[in-house]
Amino acid sequence: MLVLVEATAAGRAVALALVLLLPAVPAGAGALLRLQPSMPHVCAEQELTLVGRRQPCVRAFSRTVPVWKPGCGRQPWCVSQERRTSYYTSYRQVYAAETRTVLRCCPGWSQQPGAQGCLAAECRAGLCFNGGSCEPGSARPCRCPPGFQGPRCQHDVNECAAGNGGCEGHCCNTVGGFYCRCPPGRQLHGDGKTCRDVDECQMHNGGCHHRCVNTPGSYVCECRPGFRLHADGRTCLAVPSCAVGNGDCQHSCVQLTVTQHRCQCRPEFQLQEDGRRCVRRNPCSDRNGGCMHTCQALRGLATARCHAGYRLAGRPQGPAKVGRRIPRESLAASRCPGPYVDECVVGLARCAHGCLNTQGSFKCVCHAGYELGADGQQCLP
């Protein structure tokens, strides 16, 4: 935007001051050389300046002049007044505010006569940041404390970028420093860089109900036999022993308590010494199966058989079963009382004269005047 200022004495003084401030090209060996962007410690800055220039302006003015005119009545010529306008060009000083790029020495540096750039360090208040100290005459104007860098110590050093800062775990960069952090389950060692495992079981048993087992970087909870781990990974719940593999029983599992049980076999089977397996038992081995004469195992049940000359007393209520007490009324069916078989009637005696039945046997008799022969059946005179 142009700012117009009349060419007054004050305006000309400002213009003269601006001209004097403009950089000039020096001549001679002791003069300062013009700074270039490629020179060391040369900074480009934007500055607002007033630039003056002459602007032409066309002006006009009017005046009345005498003019001789013919035909003025009785006289051939006469003088009359006419208005005439004159134009001329004048100049005025105009100033405009413009932004331009100016090359100057970076803060903390100055240019010496004949030097190619700004090579002389200079100290002044506020030159160095973040606790840096100024060193006049050195190649670097500021000496930076650990954790900062740059000509004026204005930049932070990322210690984690090189070798993870020496941290075994995670390196966290901060302004002017850094610190190491370990993953969960591990804690920082005294050197501030290495990590060591944390034994979570040392404090409150790791929160485990039964047993805590430490692992690298973590831990796990375990339960005693007869218990299972809850979904929370810490609490142990009792498991009925019969619910796990039938308690390792071959036949039936009888739950006594939450963690105790006993095995039970089906009828006609008996439990082995290991308390788990079942074998078929011989029903006749226990008091002859309740039979009076002969006991015969039939399909795991005791069946009574009588000796020759005997038969079972009545129809049995059912064969004696293994592991069951034989009822009194069924016990009679397992006995073989006599005589139930009359050998004289069925023709088993084969006596010559007469037959006399006895309990469980028979006896041949002869008529008067006869005697029984050696075979016990024939009669001799």
From TrEMBL:
Disulfide bonds join 144-153. One of its GO terms (cellular component) is extracellular region. Keywords: Disulfide bond, EGF-like domain, Glycoprotein, Repeat, Secreted, Signal. Residues 39-120 form the EMI domain. Its main location: secreted. It is found in: Secreted. PROSITE patterns: ASX_HYDROXYL (PS00010), EGF_1 (PS00022), EGF_2 (PS01186), EGF_3 (PS50026), EGF_CA (PS01187), EMI (PS51041). Residues 119-154, 197-237 form the EGF-like domain. It holds the Pfam family FXa_inhibition. The keyword Glycoprotein applies. InterPro entries: cEGF, EGF, EGF-like_Ca-bd_dom, EGF-type_Asp/Asn_hydroxyl_site, EGF_Ca-bd_CS, EMI_domain, Growth_fac_rcpt_cys_sf, NOTCH1_EGF-like. One of its GO terms (molecular function) is calcium ion binding. This is Multiple epidermal growth factor-like domains protein 6. It comes from Phyllostomus discolor (pale spear-nosed bat). The gene is LOC118500489.
